[in-house]
Amino acid sequence: LSVYYAATLAYSLRLKRVILIDVLVLAGLYTLRVIAGGAATGLGPSFWLLGFSMFLFLSLALVKRYSELLLVQAQEQETAAGRGYQVVDLETLAHFGVASGYASVLVLALYIDSAAVDTLYRYPEVLWLICPLFLYWISRVWLLTRRDMMHEDPILFAIEDRRSHWLIAVMVGVVWAAA
Questions:
Q1: Which of 2, 59, 67, 109 has its CA 20 to 30 A from that of 26?
Q2: How far is residue 87's CA from residue 30's CA, in Å, rounded to a whole number?
Q3: For 156-165, how does the pLDDT look when each residue is reduced to its tens digit (9 = 90+)?
């Protein structure tokens, strides 16, 4: 909890203005929440969950920065005030974000192929169906962002988006079928 508060304070006072450090800290803060949730439930998060979370949250933080930078571009400015990002960074941020999102799916695939999964699920091979579903979701989020159609926090988007709800429902069904 102390690390989370210190990191949040450092982010608020300075780190949110440092290019790339801001999104890495945001991803770390969300991952710390996963760790805190594990501690609260008495279930320590696995290496797999932490790796997946870090890459996923980095991708979503980059979505946020990318969409903010699109607004800067629409206002015919070159630099995001107080952020350090420039309009010329748009493509690079998109590449980083898509790569990070896909890396989260890779971590998920490696987890599915691990020995731990064989002991937890009767039909672990069914879990492979989650990977293309998650690839679709990450790709869709980035397509919408690149089309300037992501005007909210990507977490809020996932909470409010009907297609995301359906994908989550199907993924839960896949996990249930594998159990």
A1: 109
A2: 26
A3: 999 999 999 9
